[in-house]
């Protein structure tokens, strides 16, 4: 009986998965913005998880992690070392560093083409 329930849940997951994946992806993106998550983390996450049903556990973990972080920021329970303002500063520094790297690596015309 237990195996039948599990296979039934997997069947339901696979039928609804594309819609659920898009919803979770949108929720994760919103939480990334709210929590000022690193651009590198966001990029790796998108490169790794393309919508396969086996990815559902990783999306759920990311949603829970970000929800906890957002709540902790709201309560101020993470202390001064890790706060919305400190994560905003870290994200700004990361953007500046990536900008400098692009300026070194690509000529101006090539940067314009890549950004457009």
Automatic annotation (TrEMBL):
Biological process per Gene Ontology, one example term: microtubule-based movement
Domain NPK1-activating kinesin-like protein C-terminal as annotated: residue spans: 20-112
Keywords, alphabetical: Microtubule
Highest rank taxon of the organism: Eukaryota
Gene Ontology CC terms: microtubule
GO molecular function, one term: microtubule motor activity
Protein's UniProt keywords contain Disulfide bond: no
InterPro entries found in the cross-reference section: Kinesin-like_fam, NACK_C
The keyword Cell cycle is assigned to this record: no
One Pfam family hit: DUF3490
PANTHER family: CENTROMERE PROTEIN E, KINESIN-LIKE PROTEIN KIN-7F
The protein's name in its UniProt record: NPK1-activating kinesin-like protein C-terminal domain-containing protein
């Amino acid at each position: 009986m237990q195996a039948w329930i599990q296979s039934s849940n997997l069947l339901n997951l696979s039928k609804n998965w594309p819609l659920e994946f898009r919803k979770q992806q949108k929720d994760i993106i919103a939480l990334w913005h709210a929590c000022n998550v690193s651009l590198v983390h966001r990029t790796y996450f998108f490169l790794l998880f393309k919508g396969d049903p086996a990815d559902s556990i990783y999306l759920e973990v990311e949603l829970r992690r970000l929800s906890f972080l957002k709540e902790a920021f709201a309560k101020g329970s993470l202390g001064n070392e890790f706060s919305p303002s400190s994560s905003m500063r870290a994200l700004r520094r990361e953007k500046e560093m990536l900008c400098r790297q692009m300026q070194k690596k690509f000529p101006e015309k090539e940067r314009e083409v890549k950004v457009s």
